[in-house]
């Protein structure tokens, strides 16, 4: 019921502020017997971390995960896993000058109106620092999905400002700091980001995330729809302003004969639906996409109000990504993985763990 | 926890199949003392109903709401409201020939893979018939929001295939069967729909929904974000494939200086955020948009598979809207109203009912 | 989240007032494929019904269950089952004189303080009429538990005022109107109840309920303990004031060497624990007991206050059981069955459906 | 939804094993602005701690609480409070010899059957060590209830084996290591415990807990009843086997004329109900009682089985309380306080924060 908890059966509760003593999470409902070691979190946390390249914030976060509970002799015991990361790089002085102002585009004003009090250090709870724990929890979900069902979850940056991929190659994605699927465009992206940083401005982005191998039948009807939960999961990521499943907004101008995915015993003929019909997986690739707004923290001055109601000008002098979308890829993967694992557990609760009903339609011909 | 329930404190549980004996809902958590009469549901149910005009399905649904509980002498008592609508127009023969086939673009196959059994009559539980009860529940939420906080929720069709509004006038929306905000375009829409119906094809649409008067502070951080819950709520509506808050996917190509809504003591200078920052309302207009796919039930034949695994051709002969998006407007309003009322109750649980903190930023100049 | 809903994965939501148009429930999360017909509810509803004998209230409730949804061709489809019972015997005149008074021992005053409004007709929502739907939902749970796992749930009256069973025979329980396990005592009970009715007074009772065949492992730690949920389930029944698991309050005076159930490869040596250790089933018989207070509605006058704050005397002239505990047996069975089915689904969600780990301790030698 | 979480709006999630690196909790939903400092936890943690006197376990737990999040400049911010206690006194060697055996009366066997794996160090998750975090969370709830509503929560040991209080004086309770309400009996209790310890055996106990000042109206009907939630809360405490509200099991032999609490404008005439009718507070003192079984860990040998299925004899050599009930008092207080705070938040969500309706019945004359 807590709004800092995610998931019905695999429940992840996160806590912590950007510049408090620590951030952490409690993961409950994980099946027993899963092997997990503290060092397994490093890869995805590094992918998410600022400081990965000069194209994201220079801030360095050590992000050492300590497992506080739920693991015995290297395996999950079925009791809650608690993960803790100490905040080592707090530099609260960067933010002290804005404690009395509402930064435009930030949650400063809305938090203050809600609670009448706010932690201004680094954005407090509203900082994207919180997503570190989502990525950590996602490591558990990805591993279990892969081991138990052969499901894989991957993502990539599908748009940076107005730039879109010219080609597509999964193997390129992890070889550049942009999670970009076309290696040939990387110099162009670097030049774009350098110019953007010099200008002091920022830009939006789009991230696509897909899951392969999801068995038909995962998901639930009505208010527990797989696509509904993916939408909530992605929209809950900082800076996200839009979510699509399959063809998304492109469906608006499509005809029914274009959109509907015809079926043959050899497989679906297309995947406009993004692998979900009626809220339940069809067995095709799950495809989701999200839009991220440009960073609001800019060193270009902007008008705002202070807590006394006076007009003031705000300039953000700290370290900030000119495009928060770049490092959102592993966060989106984590959220999709958490939704899928939760739905997998819910599915076997109600329907057992018997696998699919015959006849089964093979995955679509195109993915 | 039930996936047929929506909301944490205002909890709406719906039940019923398209061609079963009845559909209904249980609304729990409604504050006591709200005046409500059975006839108050008629207006929005009529707006949602097929048969409103020749541009939606000819099927006529009487949709008489019976209040079974929770009301005494015309006022809510604080105990669960149960609403019931008998299904009077079932014509199950329209669907009998497709019981053994999986209609492309429908939930037939995914439900069958999940449950190993499905109710083929009119789509069973996956039919948009279920949304009738959302609209009914939304009537309660709209009324309470308006009476208690002066919040209004309205929607309109913002795109029909490739057609977009040339002008905008709220007063036009309720005066045409398309919920279209420019009266001058209505003949064009009628001609478009007539041609579409003749062709046997269907088309997608976009619906926008807004809330005015939402106090700053409603909403919750992280996984209970107001925008995250709106996304889930809209994505849970049949045929929806995408959701946007504020500028949505347009944010991808925006610069930070364009997107961030500057603040002056006289008000926000713009509303690119759609009234939500950090998951919490800013006091500006809440703006959301959703994409609906074209109807998949077509009288144009399409390839599919039957339950034996054989390739077959499917033709849908029943009554169907060539654009389901048209009547989705009141459904989107209902879902937004339900999210807001639930968040309002949650807000006063944690933070009391004290209203806003000074200084308050007036609503944006442009909305 | 609704307080009118019970269970996490098998979720039962009830609605309706004693003298409103109808009572009903929505059962969500039931596995698909379970055969169920409307007439299957009759047996347990009859067991619960007033009018079973002269020893409970003379009020006759037809209690015809209509299945509104969730069943297709006689089997559950995995979507919500809605059950409806029309209230046919309302006689609201019996209660009209007490609308302005707070009956001692009833929820009149507490409901009124909570909501500022209450439905006085027959106790409204606080009437034991609501438990009819628990019994109906329990029919589903009992059947599934028996078919899927061989689990049986049974109960009996274990104390009526100061009278306790002299002997114990399960086969006697269903053959007398008291659910009493010793047939020889039935005349004594009848005489006692006749005298009680003549006196105008009422008396308390105790009901025991047991489950056989529960696999070791069902249940969850900490706040989802099987015994914790049984306690909440039984305490939620009208008039219940105490709950015990296994030896219950007798444990207070026991020594550790007495209480701990020793184990041999041939089985547990005793069952003081009532089949639950650490919140999780041991595989022994689950044993719970509950105390019910005497009926508060009496034709003997009692002091109270009216809604204006004046001292008044109240006399209840309607039909009332002099011992509500007698017909509580099927209600207790239903609640225990609902808890067990919910925990069974939760167990297979997290731990799969693989059955027990070797070595398994056989059920206790004494039950 | 997590079974390691407690409460709907004030949600406490605990984690940690007895001999793991740490135990902790996340408290979500706390209203903003509550002053709280790490040292405020010390008093109740000390009351709960083993080592308080020679009559409970000699194990010394430092139990330094670190606040990891949710507090800024000494006040709660409305975001999750995370509390952490490092386990400093682990001595896992005490338990190594029982890793392969199932201790009678412990959760060893049931956990192993559930999960197929268990953490044997000090009982792992099933240890009463977990209740430390309940007490810590209860400190928050007690403080908020007292400051916001003037509600106080207190408890005492009401039975030790066969010994019951001869007199009653609240002021005595905190002045002896037994939480006993009659100072004159303390020497008798000490002698009894010394003899018990020498014998190697253990004994059960009863704890009573009461809340004063609870406004009428807190609580919810049906499955969210205040008494139902108290029952679940108390039964979830280690070793608890029974729960009573008000007269509890004594109600079984009472007549209706005895039990019903008559009302006069000057107040209730008695409080057999324990302050709750229909699941909702009446404004009288809330009274609950719980039975605790005797400690199962004994140095007197007992028969059991090992994980290979062999008959073995178990002797527990570690430090254990001969009566776990003695230190259960602050745990029971914490659970009652958490239930009340959660219900208080739920009440103001649905019904606002307006206080009581006139006329109000004063608290009962006897408490």
Comma- or semicolon-separated keywords:
homotetramer, 367 residues, alpha+beta, Chorismate synthase, AroC fold, five-stranded antiparallel β-sheet, four-stranded antiparallel β-sheet, 9 helices, 17 strands, 25% helix, 20% strand
Q: Could you describe the 3D structure shown?
A:
Chains A, B, C, D: Homotetramer. Chains A, B, C, D: Pathway: Metabolic intermediate biosynthesis; chorismate biosynthesis; chorismate from D-erythrose 4-phosphate and phosphoenolpyruvate: step 7/7. Chains A, B, C, D: Belongs to the chorismate synthase family. The structure is a homotetramer. The first copy, chain A, is of the alpha+beta class. Chain A has one domain (about 5-350): 4-Layer Sandwich (Chorismate synthase, AroC fold). Chain A has nine helices and 17 strands. Chain A has helices spanning about 40-50, 95, 110-115, 130-150, 170-175, 185-200, 225-235, 255-260, 330-350; strands at about 5, 10-15, 20-30, 65-70, 70, 75, 80-85, 150-160, 205-210, 240-245, 265, 265-270, 275, 280, 285-290, 300-305, 310-315. The first copy, chain A, has a five-stranded antiparallel beta sheet, covered by helices on one side. A four-stranded antiparallel beta sheet of chain A has the order 8-9-15-10. In chain A, β5 (about 70) and β6 (about 75) form a beta hairpin. Chain A starts with a strand and ends in a 16-residue tail after the last helix. The mean pLDDT of chain A is about 90.
